[in-house]
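Postdoc handover notes: sequence design on the structure in folder B. Input tokens:
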């Protein structure tokens, strides 16, 4: 390979027949003691007017003469080589000066003397100093090399996994959840397809390595709370945000709550009785009664026992609490999410639990858009580190993208999705457009802190645990 030209941070490389590189590969352009690191993002033919004419001329000659050309100097094969020459478009990502990585690329490598070779993931990692204590093996990258990120890169961070339908997003997210739990982390998953439960089992039906650390919680069944445990703040947040309770009714609700609390009879039955007999305006009573019935039918509250996050967390070294919302109604989902998030923040505030990793599938279906940014900013501060999984990049608003640390980008072919993601993401839009459009299934482009801001293409490994969540089909193949 040879350098052909450079404009801004783009380097065009001339490749002959035997030179090979795939989109996403890293190359090292060595020039004496200095070198630069470039990433290939597109491949095209060498184009010039004279080449076109050449190709046309040969086709015309071939078509019109039956005799073999006399070509004693073998010029034909040379010209064929030229016609097969390709150009790799690459982006300059960093420079290496005396073994040190710098982002300052203020010099031009020599066209004649530079040597270009492929960089292995191992070399790249050692240049970037990408190491950690808690590895998360993800699959293969580059030339079938083993690839891992580190749990530290998700710790305290906001991540997004996005890509079109069936591209492998949930698969990657299950892999992350499983490994985080193996490292002793506490993970809460908002699961819309009841598919994460599969991490409890291996493919062959035997219990998985984290079998005893997976808690499947279904709203109204395994997941029920006592009023007292939730607290006034969480319940009023639920009434306001999930059940659209007007302010006047909310004030009356506070009064009822305080009265019951003072009497020491704060439970769901007593609340129902009091709402019916409390001396209030009939409109306010209607508002309260209708909310009360919704709460009753969600079965989220119970007067005896109830789920306690801190009990699970204290009894286990790492746990996945999977909230199976596949069969819940939209309202129950919103109520559940509201209660769970407020309670977790409350426990974190009181330092009763360690930081929590939160995985939210298609969060726009149960959290209002205006409310998200607040959740993200506030919760990160308290110690809730979120990963969003979605196939609609435009469902996540720009304010969230601006705070994102890691993006795992699967294939998108739709132009408007590509537009959105290339505008807001942490890498340049040429790279994203060109690489993401042609990513095969189950491969993704990792961008952000986990790869030290050098975008990497990786093929996600198959999983040893059961991956539920396939779309149900009528016609069986
Ligand atoms: N790396 C992989 N190796 C083997 N199988 C995979 C891999 N990634 C995904 N799959 C399989 O491909 C199918 C689709 O994957 P997955 O459910 O993760 O897609 P998705 O992007 O979450 O789709 P959706 O948008 O419908 O939620 C699943 O059956 C899953 O088991
Ligand atoms: Mg999915």
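Designed sequence:
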């Amino acid at each position: 390979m040879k350098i052909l030209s450079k404009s801004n941070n783009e380097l065009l490389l001339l490749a002959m027949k035997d030179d090979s590189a795939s989109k996403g590969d890293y190359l090292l352009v060595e020039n004496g003691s200095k070198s630069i690191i470039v990433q290939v993002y597109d491949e095209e033919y060498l184009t010039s007017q004279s080449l076109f004419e050449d190709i046309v001329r040969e086709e015309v000659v071939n078509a019109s003469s039956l005799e073999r050309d006399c070509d004693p100097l073998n010029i034909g094969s040379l010209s064929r080589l030229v016609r097969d020459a390709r150009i790799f478009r690459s982006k300059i990502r960093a420079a290496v000066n005396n073994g040190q990585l710098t982002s300052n690329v203020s010099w031009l490598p020599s066209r004649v003397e530079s040597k270009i070779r492929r960089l292995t993931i191992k070399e790249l990692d050692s240049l970037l100093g990408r190491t950690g204590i808690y590895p998360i093996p993800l699959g293969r990258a580059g030339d079938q090399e083993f690839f891992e990120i580190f749990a530290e890169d998700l710790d305290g961070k906001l991540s997004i996994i996005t890509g079109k339908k069936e591209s492998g997003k949930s698969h990657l997210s299950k892999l992350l959840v499983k490994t985080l739990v193996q490292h002793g982390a506490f993970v809460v998953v908002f699961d819309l397809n009841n598919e994460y439960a599969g991490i409890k089992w291996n493919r062959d039906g035997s219990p998985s390595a984290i079998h005893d650390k997976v808690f499947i919680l279904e709203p109204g069944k395994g997941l029920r709370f006592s009023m007292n445990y939730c607290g006034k703040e969480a319940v009023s947040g639920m009434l306001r945000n999930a059940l659209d309770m007007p302010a006047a009714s909310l004030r009356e609700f506070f009064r009822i709550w305080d009265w019951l609390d003072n009497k020491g009879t704060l439970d769901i039955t007593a609340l129902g009785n009091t709402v019916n007999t409390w001396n209030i305006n009939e409109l306010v009573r209607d508002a309260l009664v209708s909310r009360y019935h919704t709460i009753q039918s969600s079965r989220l509250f119970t007067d005896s026992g109830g789920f306690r996050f801190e009990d699970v967390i204290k009894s286990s070294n790492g746990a996945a609490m999977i909230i199976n919302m596949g069969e819940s109604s939209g309202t129950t989902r919103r109520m559940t999410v509201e209660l769970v998030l407020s309670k977790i923040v409350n426990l974190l505030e009181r330092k009763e639990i360690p930081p929590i990793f939160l995985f939210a599938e298609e969060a726009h279906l149960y959290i209002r858009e205006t409310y998200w940014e607040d959740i993200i900013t506030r919760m990160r501060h308290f110690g809730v580190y979120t990963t969003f999984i979605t196939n609609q990049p435009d469902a996540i608003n720009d304010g969230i993208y601006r705070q994102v640390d890691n993006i795992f980008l699967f294939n998108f072919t739709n132009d408007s999705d590509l537009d959105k993601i290339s505008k807001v993401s942490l890498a340049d839009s040429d790279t994203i457009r060109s690489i993401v459009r042609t990513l095969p299934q189950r491969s993704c482009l990792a961008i952000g802190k986990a790869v030290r801001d050098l975008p990497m293409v990786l093929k996600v490994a198959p999983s040893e645990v059961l991956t539920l969540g396939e779309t149900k089909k009528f016609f069986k193949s």
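Context for whoever picks this up: The first helix runs from residue 49 to 64. Don't rerun without checking with the PI first.
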